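hi support,

uploading two proteins for the ticket. first:
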Amino acid sequence: MQKQVEYSDAIKTKYPEQVVIVIAKDQQGKANPVTLGWTMITSGNPPMMAIAVAKKHYSVQAINHSKCFTICYPSSEMSDAALFFGSKSGRDTDKLSEFKCNTEPAVKINSVLLSDAAANFECKLVSQAEAGDHFIFIGEIVCSHINTESKKRLYTIAPGHKLGSAS
């Protein structure tokens, strides 16, 4: 049986929620990572994924400029990086200079990969839509990578930015 509650109460049942770090280069060529929770697969053929980015985030400008982005599935060891990338703005901070994180060049787009992530997906921007206070960006996956070591993924496991592995 269901009971009616406020949205703010019902949405708390979403945990664990996946975490991604999205990277796009800005007009100065600076790679700007941002931590996001809202992502999904939108197509299997061709492979496509979508991300939702708050309209106020600097990453919106970077994605619109570069027309591509990397979606990284951070490993459970990357919680400090995820918190840092999600709490600083690329307008004011060169996040990859301030928070040392292993990166490597993307293969098919003008971006970078996070070397310690469980997986990285190189995406070319194919569409975007306005959704309330967010933009939804849809990217076609043009190259995929997995870590050479077995890595558990990082998730938001409870409200208040509590991060960890889902198992």
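and the second one:
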Amino acid sequence: ILSSILYADKLEDIKKAGVLKAGVKYDFKPFGFISKSGNVVGFDIDLIKYIAKKLEVPVKFEQVTSKNRIPMIVTGEIDIAAASMTQKRSRDDVIDFSISYFFDGQAMLVLNEEKATNYEGFVDKKVGAIKGATSGENFKKLQPKAKIIYFEEYPQAVLSLKNAKIDAITTDLVWCVTQAKDSKGKLKVLEQVLSYEPYGMGISENESNFRDFINNAIQDSVTDGTYEKLYLKWFDKKPEKLPEVWPK
């Protein structure tokens, strides 16, 4: 009894509270975005709903951005963040990650008439990136002569690109492909992939029971076919790489 007083258990706390507070993006299609009917939908959202169902509690979605998702985990405003978050060792210092549940890479979204074919062509050009994401600093290392313009949220960056105020946006490939597809020929994605970006769900440090539960749920979604079904739904193709599944 004493040990349970000393050590709070997030998994038990969530069950007692009767709700899972999940941080998701509202502006990052197809992972998390607002549908025409005004609901938050997407791949991350469906995967969180699957986890919440396993927990037998409803889910309450909170909007997060690349900049505030980690602070909101640390302060306990949210229990979990499923927000296209690249797993990095430096981030793991302040939060814990689930196993990788999605595999992406960094790319460049440009206007259709852009002549440059890779990052080398962006000397003295303006490249948009999102505050708190890894892509801006990644790009600066590749092309130190580019001017990185930081945005709080993705829609502002897209508007700037469409209005030719910036020359490119650099961020995750799947998002870039989705934007190009939705732009009716105005935007395109450069073929070169700039980095490897495995996504993890973020939770507070040292909550191994909760982390185990999430890891098992992600693996269950693969073994019961849900993962592939959701992937097809949101990406119109089968996954090339599945999350790892551990032997029983």
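thanks. also noticed: The chain has a mean pLDDT of 94.
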